[in-house]
Amino acid sequence: MTFHAWLQVLFFIVAFVGLTPLLGKYMADVFMGTRTFLHPVLGWLERFFYWGSGVDPNEEMSWQFYAKSLVLFNFFGFLLIFLLQIAQAHLPLNPQHFVGVDWALAFNTAVSFITNTNWQAYTGESSLSYLTQMMGLGVQNFLSAATGMSVLVAFARGFMRKSTNTIGNFWVDLVRSIVYIFLPLSILFAIVLVGQGVIQTFHPYVELTTLENAKQTIPLGPVASQEAIKQIGTNGGGFFNANSAHPFENPTGFSNFLELLAIILIPAASIYMYGVMINSVKHTWLIYGVMFLLWASGLAIANYSEHLRDPILGAYPILEGQEARLGPINTLLWSVSTTATANGSVNAMLSSLTPLAGGISMFNIMLGELIFGGVGVGLSSMIMFILLTVFLCGLMVGRTPEYLGKKLEKLEIQWVMAAILTPTALILLGAGISIVLPIALSSLGNAGPHGLSEMLYSFSSSAGNNGSAFAGLNANTNYFNIVLGCVMIIARLAIVVPSLAIAGSLANKKITPPSPGTFSTNTFLFVILLLSIILIVGALSFFPALSLGPIVEHFLMLEGVGF
After folding, report:
1. What is the DSSP string of 464-508?
2. pLDDT at residue 472, as a whole number
3. CA 410, CA 415: separation in Å to the nearest integer?
4. Rounded CA gap, 86 and 163, in Å?
5. Is the peptide bond before 516 cis (omega within 30 degrees of 0)?
6. For the purposes of burial, counting CB atoms within 10 Å of the CB of 216, is it exposed (0-12), middle (13-18) or buried (19 or more)?
7. At what angle do helices 377-397 and 281-306 cross, to 10 degrees?
């Protein structure tokens, strides 16, 4: 790796780590009801939402009512996107006169965007109108991210509160997420992106004549506004099919850096926010360190793999499928970060990466969306592993395990196991069944271990609410649209419902003062144990499948065998 590439990596790390406490403290103030510098400017908008919807911001909810409100709200969001796609031929802002979307694809896309997965079985510039992109996908980019953030905030309240049956108000958490965090950041970011050359227009597509006298259609649209929240909210669904590899979404090196920073910024800041809310910033810096170590290790392995000499291509470094405008390091930074954060956007084709580099992207998702992860739910996933670590340590010393002064009992651990094992089962069962069904195999673009990786990745991306695609798999079939859509729903509920249930259970308990026998979560021993649990669970669950996919393909590549 060149000195210039090292500088880019270092500058990126300094930027997102340096901004973490600044944004994290602000976010904590928002959700703890502390007045911020934006309250005089946007407070009226928050109050308008409460007035217009008849919500009492002072009314608290039990975890069951919080979960019910969340699920119903997202169900109606699903219906809106589904109907918009079906009826778009008869609606305005459709200058290309696109017909309605097929029901199975409309179902998949609607589910994808309400679950913050943003899996793209569709081709945006050739199938979706401007109205569908904005009112459907763009709006849900805000709402699904705010939903994830609300879950984390409610989860944190479970540790903060004692002897109460309530964990907050879903509508208040949702509105504050949008009004004070996602909306101002997205407006500012969209303006900067327009300045960099990202398009923002309602003009119809332009047809040009090339130098070869052929006709070429240039797709246009309100791209910058969707691109901003796509990255900030870890959504990942691009306006164009090529996503951030398209020059209208990502035109310059500076736009690439800003979009990459936007992917990881709020997930990273959420960790600091959690520390402020639970009054234990030291503990959350240790969690941050575990996440950073996993992210950096993945980047190092991917970089090593991409700089091997490929006897098939005879190239060094390997540039096939990479973002040639920006250099190999920006491809790898993006591929590792987008899969570590459940963002899912791409600036290159993951299928074209070397087997180990592509395998790292897959393993990031398989771990359970916990390396920074999606907005809100990423840290919720990590907390599940923290609770599991504390529980196992308690068993080893013969004490009732405690975390932040709350005793962990049978009910909490049952919910933890449901949250950890359900996505794992969806990935392995879904890919295992599909790999023997002719209706699914007909969609594969490659044979051998690379074909297995394509199948594994599609289910990993759906179960991890990531949305990135390995490419090579034709996912726009009734089988994949329906099956992957169901996987997205179950996987999203598998982290949301247990998080709220545990929060409700813990909020009802008293806070136990620490004793000499309490296992401290503010030591490096805790870091080692947490990291070990994550890797052991990941290895036991996925090593056999990865061995048959990217690992064996890596060794075959070194022998000059490709697929």
Report:
1. TT-----SSB---SHHHHHHHHHHHHHHHHHHHHHHHHHHHHHHT
2. 81
3. 9
4. 48
5. no
6. exposed
7. 110
Positive or negative, the Cα torsion across 379, 363, 104, 227? positive
Provide the pairing of β-strand 406-407 with 206-209.
unpaired
- In this prediction, the residues of the chain whose per-residue pLDDT falls under 70 are 315-317, 321, 563
CB 92 within 8 A of CB 131: yes
Instruction: Tell the burial category of 426 from Cβ atoms under 10 Å away from its Cβ (0-12, 13-18, 19+).
Output: buried
Using alpha carbons, list the distances in angstroms from residue 281 to 16, 266, 340.
Answer: 17, 17, 22
pTM of the model: 0.93
* Number of Cβ within a 10 Å radius of residue 241: 15
Q: How far is CA 457 from CA 69, 170, 345, in A?
A: 32, 33, 14
The residue type at 68 = K
How far is the C-alpha of 24 from the C-alpha of 30, rounded, in Å?
10
Provide the token pair at 501: 């249930």
Are the C-beta atoms of residues 115 and 231 closer than 8 Å to each other? no
DSSP H/E element including 542:
helix 524-546
Task: List alpha helices for 128-280, DSSP H.
Answer: 130-131, 139-160, 170-177, 183-196, 223-232, 253-277
Q: What is the C-alpha to C-alpha distance for residues 508 and 409, in angstroms, rounded to an integer?
A: 13
Measure the CA–CA gap between 461 and 467, rounded to whole angstroms. Answer: 5
Could you give the angle at the alpha carbon of 413 between the alpha carbons of 412 and 417, nearest 5°?
125
Question: Roughly what angle, to the nearest 10 degrees, separates helices 524-546 and 281-306?
Answer: 40
- Whether the Cβ atoms of residue 220 and residue 247 lie closer than 8 Å to each other: no
Q: Which two structure tokens, joined as six digits, stand for 488?
A: 């997205």
CB 297 within 8 A of CB 304: no
- Write out pLDDT tens, residues 235-271: 988 899 889 989 999 999 999 999 999 999 999 999 9
Taking a C-beta distance cutoff of 8 angstroms, is the pair 150, 174 a contact? yes
Let me know: does 236 contact 230? Beta carbons within 8 Å: yes
HEC sequence for 246-278: CCCCCCCHHHHHHHHHHHHHHHHHHHHHHHHHC
Give the largest Cα separation in the chain, rounded: 81
In the prediction, which pLDDT does 311 show?
77
Q: What is the pLDDT of residue 213?
A: 86
What Rg value do the Cα atoms of the chain yield, rounded? 23
CA distance 158 to 512: 14
In Å, how far are 114, 117, 288, 310 from 520, measured between CA atoms? 38, 35, 17, 47
Q: What residues pair up with 222 in beta bridges, in sequence order? A: 200
Q: How far is CA 413 from CA 321, 387, 394, 453, 532, in A?
A: 43, 8, 12, 32, 18
Which pLDDT does position 351 carry in this prediction? Answer: 84
Which residue's structure tokens are 């990993």? Answer: 460
Cα separation, 493 vs 498, in Å, equals: 8
Tell me how far apart the alpha carbons of residues 186 and 402 are, in angstroms, rounded to a whole number. 39
Predicted local distance difference test score (pLDDT) of residue 315 = 66
Distance of CA 542 to the CA centre of its chain: 20
The crossing angle, in degrees rounded to 10, of helices 355-366 and 328-340 is 20
First to last CA, the chain: 27
